[in-house]
Write a structure and sequence with these properties.
This protein starts with 5 loop residues before the first helix and ends with a strand. A hairpin with a 5-residue loop joins β4 and β5. The relative contact order is 0.21. It has 3 helices and 7 strands; from the N terminus they run ααββαβββββ. It is an alpha+beta fold and 136 residues long.
Length: 136
């Protein structure tokens, strides 16, 4: 992902902040009214399916779903045009108890003129998420 496309750069900043466990950098990557929909639509993570809008809600999303865990990204392909980028890949989340959640999907980033994320949308199906229980 060496391309200089603004949305692809924002996606890379997002993933880098998650890898580094840098909540401040991750939240700062969003526009003030940005939204996270992960996954898009109603789910166990967002029963109403309305997403997490604004930096306060985005920070709470981090605290609940990113901060306590180790998260790894494997982007197999990336398509960018206009103000958006769509990454195709796998997100692997290791929970504190050692359980592993594996999600395959398409993860889109839309940015504003300043390169801030206005929408992070994760297209994946909860029913297709793979869970691996910790050993023992």
């Amino acid at each position: 992902m060496a391309d200089e496309h603004p949305a692809r750069l924002a996606a890379q900043r997002s993933m880098d902040a998650v890898h580094k466990k840098d909540k401040a950098a991750w939240v700062a990557n969003f526009a003030d009214d940005g939204i996270v929909e992960d996954p898009v639509g109603p789910s166990m993570l967002d029963p109403d399916g309305k997403g997490h809008r604004g930096r306060t809600a985005i920070a709470a999303f981090w605290d609940k779903l990113i901060g306590p865990n180790r998260v790894f990204f494997d982007v197999r392909d990336s398509y960018a045009n206009g103000s958006e980028c769509a990454n195709v890949g796998t997100v692997t989340t290791v929970l504190p108890n050692g359980a592993i959640m594996i999600v395959n999907g398409v993860f889109t980033y839309r940015v504003n003129e300043s390169g801030k994320v206005i929408a992070l949308r994760a297209f994946w199906e909860p029913a297709k998420m793979k869970a691996v229980q910790p050993p023992g």
